[in-house]
Design goal:
- The protein is mostly helical.
- The protein has a single domain (21-199), classed as Cytochrome c oxidase, subunit III, four-helix bundle (Four Helix Bundle (Hemerythrin (Met), subunit A)).
- 72% of the residues lie in helices and 0% in strands.
- The chain is elongated.
């Protein structure tokens, strides 16, 4: 009761989506922290390049096929991910289930492509500073792809269980879709650094 007015909160939903959800803010904070890590890896890469007489050190620039294929695939994967986020906001269980299956399959493909990408760098992680930072950047991004894939698989299982009707799960699916957008967005400047900066 405030100033003699009683506020009726019984019609409020037990949980919210997007900014109305605490998990959304937690996911956003996590992305800001991890984004700082990605940015620092790029700064270290550029700093090492500025100190080197030639770049890359003692190796050829990486082959473009694997990295470019991965980049194109990640960008295309945003389309079904956007639909999944929309279906989660609409609380459409059937479409959310289909979207989660699709995104689970699409989350496996980048890991397969990444297996071809490491050899395409033409350098091992312990060969020199260039090799170390390249492998750190690829390893960091691979870890985030794997993290999102595991979360997507867990959410897929939950949405096909008795927990699928819980409105809170739709918020989790929406947050997971936002995280995949982050994974794709962080790769684009890393791709430019790893594949195109050595060709300048």
């Amino acid at each position: 009761m405030k100033d003699g007015v009683v506020l009726d909160l019984t019609e409020l939903p037990p949980n919210g989506l997007g900014p109305a959800s605490l998990s959304w803010w937690g996911t956003l904070a996590f992305m800001l922290i991890e984004g700082t890590g990605f940015a620092l890896s790029i700064v270290v890469y550029l700093y090492l390049m500025s100190l080197a007489p030639r770049w890359p050190l003692s190796s050829a620039p990486p082959d473009l096929l694997a990295g470019t294929t991965l980049t194109a695939f990640l960008v295309v994967s945003l389309v079904p991910n956007i639909f999944l986020a929309r279906w989660a906001r609409d609380k459409n269980l059937l479409k959310a289930r289909i979207g989660l299956i699709v995104m689970s399959l699409l989350g496996i493909v980048p890991l397969i492509l990444r297996a071809f990408e490491f050899p395409a760098m033409h350098i091992m992680w312990d060969q020199n500073a260039y090799g170390s930072i390249v492998w750190v950047m690829l390893g960091l991004h691979t870890t985030h792809i794997l993290t999102d894939l595991v979360e997507t698989l867990v959410l897929t299982c939950l949405m096909f269980s008795r927990h699928g009707d819980n409105p809170r799960r739709f918020g989790d699916v929406s947050d997971n879709a936002m995280y995949w957008n982050f994974v794709v967005a962080t790769w684009l400047p890393m791709y430019a650094c790893l594949y195109w900066v050595p060709r300048l």
